[in-house]
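User: Please write out a complete single-protein record containing the residue sequence and its fold in token form, without commentary.

AI:
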Amino acid sequence: MLRLKHMIVSHHGEYEYGSPKLPMTLESVALSCLDNLDAKVFFFHQQIRDDPNVDSPWTNFHPNLNRKLFKGRGLGARARGELWKSPPTASAGLVAAESCVKSEDQQRG
């Protein structure tokens, strides 16, 4: 029961994200990374879905991400809109997962 409580309390992963405790067990680190991944995939999905640049396979530049996002090629604006009704999981998820691993390595180092 103590481990479950710790997972709940530490799931934000870092003090700056509102976590009262840092993850200290394997399970809590995994949950924290999954929570971070979910937030990043959702954010990428929103940026792609709401991008006003409908005639380009790229979004406009996002200063908070420091990059443009690739929406795909060969799709018209309507088809692209249909494609992004549900969040993507592969490409954005890999970026977020790599970021989480780097963040965990930095905490240790």
The chain has one domain: 2-108. Residues 76-80 have pLDDT under 50 and may be disordered.
